[in-house]
Amino acid sequence: MKSHFTFSKEQRNGILLLLILIIGLQCLYFFVVPITIGVSSEDIAVNKEELAKFNKEIDSLRLVQLEQRKPKIHPFNPNYITDFKGASLGMSNKEIDRLLAFRKENNWINSTKQFQEVTKVSDSFLNQISPYFKFPEWVNKPKVKQVSAFSYGKTSKTYVEKQDLNKATPKQLQSVNGVGTVFSERIVKFRNKFIGGFIDDIQLQDVYGLTPEIIEKITNHFIVKTPRQIQKININNATVDNLVTVQHIDYDLAYNIIEQRNLRDGYKSLDELIKVKDFPVNKIDIIKLYLSLD
């Protein structure tokens, strides 16, 4: 053991030098370095104008980056706004529901002003999204209708000259301007649902897709000359089961009709039916074909 702890003069001097060096470095770390850092921090000169300019540039780059992250709005037709599309644009649920209810009735929005009237959106929101509205070409540039005195679809004929609508073929109906293969076949198919055909021309309103203009063109050349014979129902003593046999009258409406009849002590005119709750006013002319007051 003695040989492990016995050092020569040179070894002892080396160990002493090593200890002095370690102690010196520790003192330098704890006392000299912090003083040096503190002094250098105080001596740093800050150019406030350059710093402000640098911060402003950083802020502008941050805004550009945020703008790029926003979802981009592409031009769209407001008639086809869905729940998801409306919510992403920032519309409220009530505004979206008003638009969907309007479209459900097969109505179309054809202007920015009409969009606001239907949805009740604010002016600021309208100004924000209206630049992205894209309406069909025919809305932005409506075509000027050329009126021709020789238009077969508009020139009305006398009763004798008109053909019987209950006997018309699809090919004959297609001779009317605006009635193609689809409409002509649809008219004949709807007519054939009833044994004996139409009662009156007014029933063309029930053919899906026919507009009032096309119906007018058809009735200029076709009319019901051999109407289907029916037994009209006395509205003042009809039962629920009687009433539900009439087009556009279901059980709920039949009960409402009878309830209103009892309150009125009988109907004096068939036009009084429009006062009945949930009555389809636009179908009253068709419903009246099946009813009478005596």
From TrEMBL:
It comes from the Bacteria. Keywords: Membrane, Transmembrane, Transmembrane helix. Gene3D superfamilies: Photosystem II 12 kDa extrinsic protein (1.10.150.320). The keyword Transmembrane applies. SUPFAM superfamilies: RuvA domain 2-like. The chain crosses the membrane at residues 12-32. Signal peptide: none annotated. This is Helix-hairpin-helix domain-containing protein. It comes from Flavivirga aquimarina.
